[in-house]
């Protein structure tokens, strides 16, 4: 087997992990949590100011963040998924949008994303999530005006 064939096989296997990661729904966090590497890192580089945390390191922190998000986000399913493989067989760039029913704290959440995903040993070891922070901030402001706020 050539190095090129080996890299192509690894890229294909890692792509399946990425597809499963985005097919999961926050309403069923166990689906996504099973795909995280024990040393995984989740980052929100362009998150709105004021968030208590924008980087989670290790599976325990990611599990805690995912479970907390379950109560704040509803019907957050990615659609219009486009997966771009990089030359590095572990690295993928993914674009997606939320389904129209998606909400944050009960408010509409019409968000689009760019994700940087790295897969190692069949698990996601890095997720960098880029999104329009103003959409999230506006949904939170509207929810707070109605007496709803995050429990984080």
TrEMBL record:
- Superkingdom of origin: Bacteria
* Pfam entry (one): SnoaL_2
Domain SnoaL-like residue range list: 25-125
Q: Name the Gene3D superfamilies on file.
A: 3.10.450.50
GO biological process per UniProt: antibiotic biosynthetic process
Q: Which InterPro entries match?
A: NTF2-like_dom_sf, SnoaL-like
Q: What is this protein called?
A: SnoaL-like domain-containing protein
Q: Which organism is it from?
A: Agromyces ramosus
């Amino acid at each position: 087997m050539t190095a090129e064939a080996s890299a192509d096989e690894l890229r294909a296997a890692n792509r399946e992990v990425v597809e499963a990661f985005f097919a999961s729904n926050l309403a069923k966090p166990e689906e996504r949590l099973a795909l995280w590497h024990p040393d995984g890192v989740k980052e929100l580089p362009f998150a709105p100011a004021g968030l208590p945390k924008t980087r989670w390191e290790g599976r325990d922190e990611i599990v805690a963040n995912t479970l907390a998000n379950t109560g704040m986000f509803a019907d957050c399913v990615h659609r219009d998924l486009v997966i771009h493989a990089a030359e590095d067989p572990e690295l993928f760039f993914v674009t997606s949008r939320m389904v129209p029913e998606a909400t944050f704290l009960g408010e509409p959440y019409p968000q689009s994303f760019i994700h940087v995903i790295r897969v190692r040993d069949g698990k996601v070891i890095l997720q960098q999530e880029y999104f329009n922070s103003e959409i999230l901030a506006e949904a939170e402001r509207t929810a707070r005006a109605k007496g709803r706020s995050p429990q984080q």
